[in-house]
Amino acid sequence: MDFLSTLQIAMRALLRNKTRSILTMLGIIIGVGAVIAMIGIGQGADQTVQKQIATLGSNMLFISSGSGNSGGLRVGNGSTKTLLEPDVAAIARECPAVVAVAPGTQTSAQLVYEGDNWGTRVVGTTPEYFDIRTWPFQSGTSFTRDDVTNAANVAVIGETVRKNLFASTEAVGKKIRIGNLPFLVVGVLVAKGQSAALSEDQDDTIIAPLTTVQKKMTGQPWLRFAMASARSRSSSYAAQQQIQALLRDRHRIRPGQTDDFTVRNLADIADVASEASKVMTVLLGSIGGVSLFVGGLGIMNIMLVSVTERTREIGIRIAIGATEGDVQRQFLIEAIAISLLGGVIGILTGVGASFIISSTAGWPVAVSTTAILIAALVSIAIGVFFGFYPAQKAARLDPIEALRYE
Amino acid sequence: MAPSESPLTGPDQGENVLHVEELHKYYQMGENKVHALRGVNLEIKRGEFVAIMGASGSGKSTFMNILGCLDKPSSGRYLLEGTDVAKLDKIQLAGIRNRKIGFVFQGFNLLSRTTALENTELPTLYARIAKEERRERALESLRLVGLAERTDHFPSQLSGGQQQRVAIARALVNRPSILLADEPTGNLDSHTSVEVMEIFQTLNDKGLTIILVTHEADIARFARRSIVFRDGTIRRDEIISNRAVAAEMIKTMPALED
Description:
The complex is a heterodimer of chains A (406) and B (258).
Chain A: H1 3-16, H2 18-55, E1 60-65, H3 85-94, E2 98-113, E3 116-125, H4 128-132, E4 137-140, H5 145-150, E5 154-157, H6 159-166, E6 175-178, E7 181-189, E8 194-195, E9 200-201, E10 205-209, H7 210-218, E11 225-230, H8 236-250, E12 261-265, H9 266-309, H10 311-319, H11 324-361, H12 369-395, H13 399-404
Parallel strand pairs in A: 3-10, 5-7
Antiparallel strand pairs in A: 1-11, 1-12, 2-3, 2-6, 2-11, 4-7, 5-10, 6-7, 8-9
Chain B: E1 16-29, E2 32-45, E3 49-53, H1 60-67, E4 75-80, E5 83-84, H2 90-99, E6 101-104, H3 116-126, H4 131-144, H5 160-172, E7 178-182, H6 190-205, E8 209-213, H7 217-220, E9 225-230, E10 233-239, H8 246-252
Parallel strand pairs in B: 3-8, 3-9, 6-7, 7-8
Antiparallel strand pairs in B: 1-2, 1-4, 4-5, 9-10
């Protein structure tokens, strides 16, 4: 029998038992839907994390003084006094994979503007900082190199600070106080938002020239951190190596001794985050896989019932000239039709679910065409695998017995 | 009508359609070995109308199943149009059932929720005939049994006699060499039975070879030759002399309300 006629007969058999066909499909619908939704949501979450990490800066490397381990004692970042401005200058000079580097120190202080005050993080750095972090201004500009040289009382504020101190009035050009010192606001940064990777509000900050913070506020001549920008994402690892080698040399750390600094590579952080979401995707995907398997068993069950019910029909078909292959194909195509149809409905359900969940969670929707294609192929494979035994059973029926079957 | 004009006959009329030699069949029924056929010898020529009779257990059903290539003999030879059926594989046997043999059963055995036309068309699907020709042949078959007006009816919308006529149309659609009818009137009232026999006689007059299994002597009288089975062998094989003509009988029968 030609394929089209076989398909027609199979579809008619499915339509004859609509409720049963739909119930049978349900397992596949749920399985495929779950897999598609999970992959979509997993990828959406991953993209969100990656985007958040990217907001930290392009190809950024983070150098902090102090290391994870110092002579058996764990020492926190920023706790040693060995990272100095000449180190930063040397990195800019001698590391070919680094395009820009900015020194940094940090403290916290209370800001006052007219009647309002706001406690925030004060960062002291150089103008390169804004380039490294790819952080544009919503109004005003950065402070200048001269400001750094002169330890001028100028500052750039983040969006959270602007909101709390200025509300709707213009901030640029206003005088604020940091502690007791008067500062002129020269620029306001655009909002970067919450960083999932650092779990802090990146916009809750005020940034002033390094020298100003060091001399007038902390009184510490050493740096707490430095930020560098690698030439490209692929060269971040090389940049990390170069910085590490240079600093070990400058700090006279002998082979075998632990570093008194830490260089973190943003690409690494991103990789760790994406590894985590991959694990999540695999986990959720395998739950979907299990329900697909159970759905397949459901198909097998119903096909076996169907073969028994239609014993007489099979007998008739064999008597009038159907070969074993014809009968087997008929039932196999029925099983494939159920699972493929279930798969298609499942794909639609899964895509719909990922849209709903993503929009509730505020994630981007990532519906992968590969996942859809694989789901469709898997549905067909399930139909073939679980339909094979019932189809074979049908094909091997003894026509004489089958014709007598009531 | 001259036989050569009929689509139901081949050119070699008068030859043996069927040749059966020393046919034996054993069954294993639990612990008992049943000897269902004990050496059957039979020749049927093209254009014959043979009634096979016998009590249940006489072996006639087993014989029919072997003739219909649904079952294989334990020993002996069965030639269908000169082909030794025992030498054929499963796919070839399916082809024989499909093209050389037309089956008519007691219980009609139509597919439910499938129209008369589609039921009739079914064997042509397995014969891999082109779509237009399938339809044409099915319509022609239904015309032969007088159901041209009911092509779109489902079996549930047809009377028993009409259902059996659809089954006959289905059996004829691939222009078989023989028509095997197993108790075709067993589920029908006497009036409808005669109507079905009239169709058989008309088809036989056009040259179709028919083998009819029945246990009713009244029905066997419509054939030209009767064979009686008992205990797995042929007991009697004779020409029916005072053959009943269904077309005439219907005229004298009281009409029944359908």
